[in-house]
């Protein structure tokens, strides 16, 4: 039986986005499941647009997601292989030079067929394919030509790529046919669209893997989201990528495009944050708050209100930065603050108490809440409910309320 060999071929012209990472994960998982090899090919034939900075960032992302590989190579170092195959095409009169570049001579009235594992058979007439460049003026191969040369040289058996490459696959299949090379199997993955319904792009920095992780999304959360994005076996809580290998099936890949859903991603993230061991959160709280004793209420408060790691950092500040001086409090605020300073039972107040205060002073309940939040947190909106906060941190809130 032929050894399975797959590859991931990022172009270092920008950062990886979720579509790129999904391709890498699926290709890697398939090779591992079949005890094959997984290669990394850096598509850097256009040196004017490629950068070592992006190359290193791409490799760092693969490392973060524990995607190992058996070999890595750069296309810019393989010029001699491309020229060798280009010479064969030229000598067979299948290619010609024009303005210093080498073009493939496309024979018309022929049919190119792709057998795709997701979409089955796809056809195109060569009448719809124009002659295209194989070698640029600097003798460096173009994308389509370098692809078929390297895939043949490295004996790639299965190619995972986004469906936006189907037109490229037709051109590559035509080259494979002319050169009589062995044809790999193709698996075209469905598009991932942004919130506007457009294909995700490297130009959109908010959809880059680096940016998503920097916003406090856990690696495991993003992994699970990507795995289930475009896969019919929905909502499998895969904790590690190795667990995905045993579940992966090509026939479960969807044909239809999916949409990048930040709410769904945050749902995954909340679930995984809630699974962080209490010990880790405890050490973090003690280290950052200088507290000798760990409060389960503080832990519950942080976890219940946090969708990202940045949310945890933001919410934890409420326990360490609560040092507001209340100058000239109005009647309602003065009464509430007095109760907090002098009555333990008030700390455990229920919403019914706020209702009673609103009735006595003839104001809306939200007004009472906003007053408390304003004086404790410096804001009346987008902060923890002060009662919920007080229940989690009795001593901290009492010791930091100062009346002047």
TrEMBL record:
Glutamyl/glutaminyl-tRNA synthetase class Ib catalytic domain location: 3-97, 105-267
GO molecular function: ATP binding; glutamate-tRNA ligase activity; tRNA binding
Keyword Transferase assigned: no
Entry's transmembrane regions: none
InterPro entries: aa-tRNA-synth_I_CS, aa_tRNA-synth_I_cd-bd_sf, Glu/Gln-tRNA-synth, Glu/Gln-tRNA-synth_Ib_cat-dom, GluQ/Sye, Rossmann-like_a/b/a_fold
Similarity section: Belongs to the class-I aminoacyl-tRNA synthetase family. Glutamate--tRNA ligase type 1 subfamily.
Protein name, entry field: Glutamyl/glutaminyl-tRNA synthetase class Ib catalytic domain-containing protein
Organism for this UniProt entry: Candidatus Vidania fulgoroideorum
């Amino acid at each position: 039986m032929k050894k399975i060999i797959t590859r991931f071929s990022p172009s270092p012209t920008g950062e990886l986005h979720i579509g790129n990472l999904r391709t890498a994960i699926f290709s890697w998982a398939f090779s591992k499941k079949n005890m094959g090899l997984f290669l990394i090919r850096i598509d850097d034939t256009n040196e004017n647009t490629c950068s070592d900075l992006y190359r290193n960032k791409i490799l760092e992302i693969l490392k973060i997601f524990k995607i190992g590989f058996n070999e890595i190579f750069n296309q810019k170092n393989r010029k001699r292989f491309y020229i060798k195959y280009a010479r064969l095409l030229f000598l067979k009169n299948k290619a010609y030079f024009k303005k210093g570049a080498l073009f493939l001579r496309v024979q018309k009235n022929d049919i190119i067929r792709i057998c795709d594992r997701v979409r089955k058979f796809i056809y195109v007439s060569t009448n719809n394919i124009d002659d295209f460049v194989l070698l640029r003026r600097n003798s460096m191969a173009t994308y389509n030509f370098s692809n078929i040369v390297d895939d043949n040289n490295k004996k790639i058996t299965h190619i995972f790529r986004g469906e936006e490459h189907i037109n490229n696959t037709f051109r590559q299949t035509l080259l494979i046919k002319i050169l009589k090379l062995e044809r790999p199997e193709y698996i075209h993955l469905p598009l991932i669209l942004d919130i506007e319904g457009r294909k995700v792009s490297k130009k959109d920095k908010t959809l880059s893997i680096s940016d998503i992780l920097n916003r406090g999304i856990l690696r495991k959360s993003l992994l699970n989201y990507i795995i289930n994005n475009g896969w019919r076996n929905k909502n499998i809580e895969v904790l590690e990528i190795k667990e995905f290998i045993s579940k992966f099936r090509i026939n479960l890949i969807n044909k239809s495009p999916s949409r990048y859903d930040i709410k769904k991603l945050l749902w995954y993230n909340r679930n995984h944050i809630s699974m962080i061991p209490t010990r880790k959160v405890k050490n973090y709280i003690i280290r950052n708050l200088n507290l000798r004793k760990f409060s389960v209420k503080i832990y519950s408060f942080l976890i219940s209100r946090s969708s990202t790691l940045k949310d945890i950092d933001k919410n934890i500040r409420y326990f360490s930065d609560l040092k507001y001086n209340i100058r000239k409090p109005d009647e309602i605020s003065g009464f509430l603050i007095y109760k907090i300073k002098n009555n333990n039972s008030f700390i455990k107040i229920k919403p019914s108490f706020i209702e009673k205060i609103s009735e006595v002073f003839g104001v809306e309940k939200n007004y009472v809440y906003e007053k408390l939040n304003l004086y404790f947190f410096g804001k009346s909106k987008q902060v923890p409910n002060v009662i919920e906060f007080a229940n989690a941190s009795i001593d901290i809130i009492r010791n930091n309320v100062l009346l002047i």
